[in-house]
Specification:
By secondary structure, this protein is of the alpha/beta class. It folds into 3 domains: 351 residues, Alkaline Phosphatase, subunit A; 86 residues, Arylsulfatase, C-terminal domain (2-Layer Sandwich); 58 residues, Recoverin, domain 1. Helix content is 32%, strand content 12%. It is built from 18 helices and 16 strands. It is globular and about 65 Å long. The termini are far apart.
């Protein structure tokens, strides 16, 4: 009888779990560093709601995204595939820029995604915010990837708004995304739902409203603040007008935090808090203030980690991994030891939702649902891998680490495609990656080099990879000290973009050629000096001076 009751209890628990799968809200910020929150040790930024998420959930301190920049990182979250499997080596830009890196113009819509799986299982699905998985002529809208509804930036789907017409659009964009998420949750409160809430903030260019900026009117940052790591102190010491940059950055992040708080409060009011899993992360590490339009956004902090966006060092690929699901995910837990990746997101959410992952999907990630629910950290069954061949790194001038990287247990190895140039770091002991211990551990170097090269052989052929491996740079934007915009032949560029040969560039002709399409509408408005809604050759050429 006891065995029967036990079996019955287990069956009821199983049925309950299947009948009430969690709602999931995936908040993905843009260029937020591993140290950019109060709970993570930032000395200035105010983030009471992110602190609340950390207090009420679990912080996985060794959480890694699958790429150093946005589009490939997002690809991995959606597919559980390393982005190189889809030849997505960098951010999606113009057709010519994509072709230069042997990239497609968008993520293949025939690929099975997490929203596809959840929608098939009865979930309502939505995407609000940044997309950046393909835009322009022929690119599928987000609905082609498993979403019922979307309101986006950087996509061919329904628009969240027009940054070109609203000078504070980016500053207010997170509020618009949260508005949409709250409405979607209200409309689907009686069924499971999944939402991608992918913010524009704190990606450059930042322009907080006067009200947002007033919160930090008295801020007096110090480049040598002990709260920043040694590498970060050195970096900030080179920043121009650190006070203004830090005020702008902190004001933008604090508004993002305010909007997250508004979402949490709304879930409470709707009675959905205990039924909703929230996952919070960033697509990559913080931006570099010397990159183009990032002077007002490039002081984000990787904490004690080395390097920033565009680097496979820890500061470029290690981001927040916050999970909250009251009553299911342990509250106040800081998990130091588990190594978790963006490629794990799909199989983990699918497991928690009771959804089977088709064998044909062949995920690169692992189901980490037991870990999320409180199980002790266990070794991964397979390593995490990266490849970075876009030829632009973080702010360490003159330094280019090898383009392949593997994290296996305590070790992290960088190596070239020919097996040479290995660098080895013991991450638990050296998260700042100061000490290359390759010479002291030749057997580890040999083993991990073999794994990295074997993984690289599973990737589809890429002329860009071949060029990079042969020593040629694969770049879409010039580095500091390289060919500048003033030296480009802008009249020739204008003629090439003016497809209808009317002597002007429309917004539709201009935007697809911009590497940072999130900034493109605002840039168009800045260039359009006479405000007639089009760019003359004179306006376009003058913008490059």
């Amino acid at each position: 009888m006891k065995s029967y009751l036990t079996l019955l209890s287990l069956l009821l628990l199983t049925l309950t779990a299947v009948a009430r799968p969690p709602n999931v809200i995936f908040i993905l910020t843009d260029d937020l560093g591993w140290g950019d929150a109060k709970f993570a040790g930032h000395p200035y930024v105010k983030t009471p709601n992110l602190d609340r998420l950390a207090k009420e959930g679990t912080w996985f301190r060794q959480f890694y995204v699958a790429a150093t920049v946005c589009s490939p990182s997002r690809t991995a979250f959606m597919t559980s595939h390393y982005p190189a499997r889809h030849l997505i080596h960098g951010h999606f830009a113009s057709h010519d820029q994509n072709a230069a890196r042997s990239m497609p113009d968008w993520l293949d819509a025939d690929v099975t995604t997490l929203p596809d799986l959840l929608k098939q299982a009865g979930y309502a699905t939505a995407h609000f915010g940044k997309w950046h998985l393909g835009q322009g002529t022929g690119a599928p809208a987000p609905e082609a990837y498993g979403f019922d509804v979307s309101k986006t930036v950087n996509s061919n789907g329904p628009s969240l708004g027009d940054e070109g017409k609203e000078p504070y659009f980016r500053a207010r964009s997170t509020a618009l995304m949260v508005d949409e998420t709250i409405k979607f949750a209200q409309a689907n409160k009686d069924r499971p739902f999944y939402v991608n809430l992918w913010t524009l903030v704190p990606h450059a260019p930042l322009k907080p409203t006067p009200e947002q900026l007033a919160v930090y009117a008295d801020l007096q940052p110090k480049a040598d603040d002990p709260a920043f790591g040694e590498w970060m102190q050195k970096y900030l010491g080179k920043a121009k007008d650190l006070r203004s940059q830090m005020q702008v950055f902190c004001a933008s992040v604090t508004d993002l935090d305010t909007q997250v708080g508004r979402l949490l409060d709304s879930l409470d009011q709707l009675g959905l808090t205990n039924d909703t899993l929230i996952f919070f992360s960033s697509d990559n590490g913080p931006e570099d203030y010397r990159i183009g339009n990032a002077a007002n956004a490039g002081v984000g902090s990787p904490g004690p980690l080395r390097a920033r966006k565009r680097s496979m060092h820890e500061g470029g690929v290690r981001t927040f991994g916050l999970v909250r699901w009251p009553g299911k995910v342990p509250a106040g837990r800081v998990e130091e030891n588990a190594v978790v990746g963006g490629v794990d997101f799909l199989p983990t959410i699918a497991a928690l939702a009771g959804v089977k992952v088709p064998a044909a999907l062949a995920p690169d990630g692992e189901d980490k649902s037991a870990l999320w629910l409180g199980a002790a950290a266990a070794a991964r069954t397979r390593p995490l891998y990266w490849e970075w061949i876009s030829g632009v790194q973080g702010p360490e001038d003159g330094y280019m680490p090898p383009p392949l990287c593997v994290r296996d247990g305590q070790w992290k190895l960088f190596v070239k495609h020919d097996g040479q140039g290995a660098q080895l770091f013991d991450i638990p002991k050296d998260a700042a990656e100061k000490n290359d211990v390759a010479a002291a551990h030749p057997e580890v170097v040999k083993e991990l080099t073999a794994k990295a090269l074997a993984w690289a052989k599973t990737l589809p052929a890429s002329p860009a990879r071949d060029k990079f491996a042969a020593g040629g740079a694969v770049r879409t934007t010039p580095r500091t000290g390289a060919k500048t915009k003033a030296s480009l032949d802008r009249p020739k560029i204008f003629a090439g973009w003016d497809k209808d040969n009317d002597g002007f560039l429309s917004k539709e002709e201009f935007i697809p050629h911009m590497a940072d399409q999130a900034d493109a509408p605002a840039r168009f408005v800045r260039f359009d000096k006479d405000k007639d809604g089009r760019l003359s050759k004179e306006e376009f050429v003058a913008a490059g001076k």
